[in-house]
Amino acid sequence: MASLLWNLAGRLALISLCFLLTIASIWAETDASPAADLPQFNSNRLMKPENYREWIWLSSGLGMTYSQEGPTSDPPQFDNVFVNPSAYRAFQKTGRWPDQTVLVLEVRNSAGKQSINKGGRFQQSLAALEVHVKDARRFPGAWAFYSFSSGGTSAAPIPAGASCYSCHAQSGAVDTTFVQFYPTLAQIARQKGTFKTSPEP
Ligand code: HEC
Predict the structure, then answer these.
(1) For ligand 1, is residue 81 a contact (CB within 6 Å)?
(2) What is the C-alpha to C-alpha distance for residues 109 and 123, in angstroms, rounded to an integer?
(3) How far is C-alpha 28 from the geometric centre of its chain's CA atoms?
(4) CA 84 to chain centre
(5) Is 8's pLDDT higher than 80?
(6) Do residues 195 and 179 lie in contact, with contact meaning Cβ atoms separated by under 8 Å?
(7) Can the peptide bond before residue 75 be classed as cis, meaning omega within 30 degrees of 0?
(8) Residue 102's closest CA among 83, 115, 121?
(9) CA-182 nearest atom, ligand 1
(10) What is the pLDDT of residue 18?
């Protein structure tokens, strides 16, 4: 009789342990994943999102220029655009950027004939790193731009009068962002009706 009771107690203890471990792992997952990719601030400075290369890649442009007279980078530079995964998932559902969206523009120099490459261009060293963040409680226009100097780990917001704000607001297809150049998102925005039909050229 005593051994039967001990056996029962042992089983109950084992079942409780499994239950607690399951709850703990679910809690750890839900707690860790959403917070991990949100913008981090130190007073008004944005901390550089160190692991943005593990985020969602939206597109790469090569030698894009926005005015006839403006300086053209020669040789042309690549720009690679990344977004934090939680904002990407929300955009897929709604065609809109949620609060706490972080978009990264990584500019890289390019090279041509090197190694076995005889034509076309490939990416090389980092030339600039710019970030666009949505946080309606923090910024009057909901969005702010940042530019990280080489080796810089935090940056102050670029003042609201800068050309970044006007060009993005006038010509971006979705909410001050250039979704017209991010093919998979452009399709979603058109389906959800959030794509501005005629952003100014
Ligand atoms: C004359 C227009 C123009 C100006 C001025 C401009 N941008 Fe952009 N920006 C663009 C275009 C076009 C893209 C899309 C690039 C691509 O497709 O690779 C872009 C993309 C970006 C992105 C990627 C996310 C997004 O919003 O679509 C960031 C970040 C960014 N720009 C930062 C800046 C910053 C910082 C400044 C000011 C220092 C600036 N931009 C000024 C036209 C502009």
Answers:
(1) yes
(2) 6
(3) 23
(4) 3
(5) no
(6) yes
(7) yes
(8) 83
(9) 17
(10) 47
d(CA 34, CA 89): 11
In terms of Cβ atoms closer than 10 Å to its own Cβ (0-12, 13-18, 19+), residue 25 is: exposed
Q: How many residues does the chain have?
A: 201
Which residue CA neighbors atom 23 of ligand 1 most closely?
A: 105
pLDDT for position 6: 60
> Do residues 46 and 133 touch, judged by C-beta distance below 8 A?
yes
- Give residue-wise pLDDT tens across range 35-45: 689 999 999 99
Neighbours of 89 (CB within 10 A): 13
Nearest residue by C-alpha to atom 41 in ligand 1: 164
**Other CB atoms within 10 A of residue 65 CB:** 12
- Distance (Å, whole) CA 82 – CA 63: 18
Q: How far apart are CA 1 and CA 4, in angstroms?
A: 5
Q: What is the mean pLDDT of residues 117-142?
A: 97
Q: CA of 11: how far to CAs of 7, 23, 125, 150, in Å?
A: 6, 19, 60, 59
Q: Match 């076309």 to its residue by tokens.
A: 120
